[in-house]
Amino acid sequence: MGGYVYHVLNRANGKQRIFHTPEAYAEFERLLYEANEQFAMRILAYVLMPNHWHLLLHPRQDNDMPDFMRWLTTTHAAKFRNKTNTVGEGHLYQGRYKSFLVDTDSYLLTALKYIERNPVRAKLSVLPEKWRWGSAYRRVHGTKKERALLAVSPTPLPYRYRAWIHEAEQLEELDEIRRSVNKGTPFGTEGFLTHFSRDRNKRK
User: Fold this and answer.
1) Number of other residues whose CB lies within 10 A of the CB of residue 104
2) In the chain, which residue ranges form alpha helices assigned H by DSSP?
3) pTM confidence score
4) Which residues touch 115 (CB under 8 Å, ≥6 apart)?
5) Which fold does the domain 5-176 belong to in CATH?
6) How is the chain split into domains, by residue range?
7) What digits encode the pLDDT tens for the residues 117-158?
């Protein structure tokens, strides 16, 4: 549904690597630009990892996210197979992308930090903004054009963003968001989820 924020992710089939080289990461980022231009998606955060990726999306209209994600994943899979000479070798991704509704209150900032600190938790980078293939890098080191890919968050980022993103998540926060990912459940308060359910029923 449009107007809400979603944590979206997908993983490679069989835990294989998706990104083997800097060029492979850069290619996916170029596709993010193209998809953003075609579907005017509001991208709040993202990170690309060796065998999976996370996006934090804020679609405007009800069909925006399915259209955006369908184009992004199918185009990327086709380009990957062509460039690696693996056409006909099965699915690149383990299945359809997963998406989880996110409460736009403090839950949104928790999800954003979780996404941007992914390389630190995986011990791929000592700091979030040191990982070249994510929105933390763009916010801190990106050019004006690179930062333009990121939309304004409906929940403002902390004033001292860099210091905030360096602080590790609380264990309770990690447990809660991981439950959302593992169980495929929304990430938010009961009141927010009730509001979402009522809004969805009105649109039917």
Assistant:
1) 17
2) 22-39, 64-83, 106-116, 118-121, 135-141, 144-147, 161-166, 171-183, 190-203
3) 0.89
4) 7, 45, 46, 47, 54, 55, 56, 134, 135
5) Alpha-Beta Plaits (3.30.70)
6) 5-176
7) 999 999 999 999 999 999 999 999 999 999 999 999 999 999
